Amino acid sequence: MLLFGNKFYIIFILLWIFGLYCILTTFHSTSNNDKIFEDRIEHLQNEVESLRQKLVQLQSENNINDQVQSGSNNAQCQELKNELKRLKRQLISKNDGGTISSRDEPSLEYEQLRRKIEMQAREISYFTTDQLNKISEKLSDQDKENWKNVILRFTDQNRVLLASIRNLTVVDGYQLWREHEHESLSKLMQARLNVLQNPSKSCQDVKRVTCNINKGCGYGCEIHHAMHCFHIAYALGRPMILFSDGWRYNPGGFDQVFQPLSRNCTKASATSASSWGNYDTADVVEIPLIDNIYPRKDFMPMAIPEDISERLIRLHGNPFVWFTGQLIKYFLRPQEWLSEFIEKKYHSINFQTPIVGIHVRRTDKVGSEAAFHDISEYMKHVEDYYIIYQYQNPNLKFTKRVFLATDEPSVFSDARSKYPDYIFYGDRAIAQSAQLHTRYGTESLKGVLLDVHFLSLCDYLVCTFSSQICRVAYEVMQQRVVDGAWRVQPLDDVYYFGGQNAHNQRAIISHKAIWPNEFSFDRGDIIGTEGNHWDGFSKGSDKTNGQSGLYPTYKTEEIVNIAKMYTYSEVRVNANEV
């Protein structure tokens, strides 16, 4: 029987097609003197008619056969949705004077400058707010009140500035290209990974790698370990065979929760694996933990493939995060029961946007790997996001929502009592299952999967990047949003990948040290960064002059690591079909 959701979807498609048809006929009646325009409109009308016929066929098939599986229905609906998106693109493009071409694409310099302006605005806010607060501490009580107004005024003006910057993508005319490029690159990556994992030859006849997911750490840590392996598999063009027997999160193994990585490369094809030192010659190579791998190669994290690097750097503010998100997209394809479980939860909590996700990690992290952060530290940035969002959309009325994920159940009552004007989504039972004595097992796994899923669906994240769960959610988020590098505010570390190759920045402006613990550097110097203090300063060392200490973040830029990897020349994706 056709599901209610699909009936609603078909009605929606009908209304959409009718609306497009009305628009097209309106344009047709007012442009009789333009033969090219007439031909274009006729072509679009034919597409609408073709879609209408497909819809009738879909409805007919569902009426005739009550046993049509919901998965098939969803696939057909998705196909219609994709065709309508292409039609929409053609219509908008026609209004702009033609199909998507080089004239409709932003330059690399424009995209980098747009992102740089946002970064600079945020760094100004970090530095100035920190300095104003330090001055305030030295003032009398009466002067503090006046100074508080100065801080509030600066904060508000900075929010208005960020709202204007973020609205650039709305008005610059390039968002259509960004969406299309995001979908095109994603489709290419998934096609490549499918070919990688399902070689046309017998698996015994191709070089391959193995990886054991059982690193003996938490979920986020083990997923990142697997991503380290999968990254290397992609770089070498070798299918990866995963070992997961006795996995602490599901003793029955990875394949009971997620789809198998391959149809024809199984553990039977992974006997007699050689050590990593023989990776360039051995038929089967076992990939060790990233911390123990030697020799290290330049294609390891956080490198991106050279053959798509130009596209990735123009598309995304953090290309490696996007690339890792695509690896995760293939790696964590859920089994049907898991998809149904997540979908049921999505509807039961009535998940809606706009929404900000916060991940509060306590228990084993505090005092060992991370400092304690009160809920107020998170909510300050949540409030900033919503005020900026309101400035971006001055006529929009919305409810302020927060998805709260934590391993400490008491955080829920703390947040709800202190911030009653927010709606908090979240599950105390999941937080309870994340306690150290109940953290491992299938039920706990379900909880962490829900947390990661809903965090990734949020519009913005506030978290500690010392937590791998937050970094996984941030990576998964990039599968959905276009150029979403800015959609996070970490409270401690910058984004990193455990065991990564050197994380370097380049000085774009020379600097002479004037603050305590600063070091001087020249334009062009390479600086190994160790973290951003979110007060206008980062910590690191100059690899050119040997000095180390603090440096002004705004005078540097990220260096994207680019490496030669297997190019998958056998994979072709038609961008016009995206």
Characterize this entry briefly.
By secondary structure, the chain is α/β, with parallel strands linked by helices. It has 16 helices and 15 strands.
Q: Cα-atom Rg, whole angstroms? A: 26 Å
Share of residues in helices: 40-55%
Sheet/helix structural class: alpha/beta
- Kindly state the number of beta strands: 15
Q: Helical region count?
A: 16
What about the largest sheet?
A: 5 strands, parallel
Estimate the strand proportion. Answer: 5-15%
Strands of the largest sheet, in order across it? 7-6-5-8-9
CATH fold category name of the largest domain = Rossmann fold
Mean pLDDT: 86
Family: Belongs to the glycosyltransferase 23 family.
Protein name: GT23 domain-containing protein
GO biological process, one term: protein N-linked glycosylation
Transmembrane segments: 7-27
Topology of helices and strands:
Blueprint: H1 4-29, H2 35-64, H3 70-95, H4 108-136, H5 141-166, H6 168-171, H7 175-197, E1 208-212, H8 219-236, E2 240-243, E3 284-286, E4 303-305, H9 309-315, H10 319-331, H11 336-348, E5 356-360, H12 375-392, E6 401-406, H13 410-418, E7 423-425, H14 428-433, H15 442-456, E8 460-463, H16 468-477, E9 488-490, E10 504-507, E11 526-532, E12 537-542, E13 548-552, E14 556-558, E15 561-563
Parallel strand pairs: 1-2, 1-3, 4-15, 5-6, 5-8, 6-7, 8-9
Antiparallel strand pairs: 10-11, 10-14, 11-12, 12-13
Helix pairs in contact: 1-2, 1-3, 2-3, 4-5, 4-9, 5-12, 7-10, 8-10, 8-16, 10-16, 11-15, 15-16
